[in-house]
Amino acid sequence: MSYKMKGKEGMTTVELLAGLMIALILLGAGTAVFFAASGSFTKYAEQSENQMITDSVCRLISDKITFARYVSVGVEPEEECHVFQFSENGHVLLDGEELYNDSFYHDKKLVCSIPENENDAPADVFRVTIKMEDGKGKSLYSSDIVVKLVNVGISGGKIRYIMNGDMKKYVDSSDQAVYISYREEGP
Predict the structure, then answer these.
(1) Domain ranges, ordered by start, for the chain
(2) Distance between CA 23 and CA 93 in Å, rounded?
(3) For residue 121, what are the CA distances in angstroms to 3, 30, 74, 135, 158?
(4) CB 3.0 to 4.6 Å from 178: which of 7, 86, 125, 166, for a disulfide?
């Protein structure tokens, strides 16, 4: 038994071209959505990397100074202390050793700034802001450190903040090196 179709057998050239055009439009729309999502993912990944690096430096500083007996922040390192250095070019060092290699920075830098000391702030609370900036000085991510210094508080000592030479603002590593010096033992 054989059946034969009556009427049209196959597609005309116009129908074939119309089908191809619809397929190309759908493919183009799908590609645009894919690239838009891909760009968002790349931007999110870069923001996450900036946040992770800035927060890890903040945690490292917090962990190191929480039980310090002496803490000083200024434009010169203190003698006989461990020292975090934020250089003018945005690199971070601990006791003279780079925390990250040069390939990490990719035209970014870490900037340390000390907010002005408020009169009602406790003398044993350490505050500092660490920012990730691009090569043009635009802030990419910022994190604040607030640490209750246990041993400084017990001893009745105070954190020593050294102001800039112009005496108008506290230290900021965007225009000069900043040192966070701390001593774990001693008076």
Answers:
(1) 40-183
(2) 57
(3) 94, 56, 19, 34, 11
(4) 86
How far apart are the C-alpha atoms of 170 and 77, rounded to whole Å? 15
What is the separation, in whole angstroms, between the first and last Cα of the chain? 107
pTM higher than the cut 0.90: no
Cβ atoms within 10 Å, residue 85: 21
Residue 2 structure tokens: 């054989």
- Phi, psi (degrees; rounded to nearest 5) at 120: -90, 0
One digit per residue, the tens of pLDDT, for the chain of length 187 reads 555 556 667 778 888 899 999 999 999 888 888 887 777 788 888 888 888 888 888 999 999 888 888 888 888 888 888 999 988 888 889 998 988 887 777 778 888 887 765 555 667 788 888 999 888 888 899 998 888 888 876 766 666 665 444 444 556 677 778 888 888 865 5
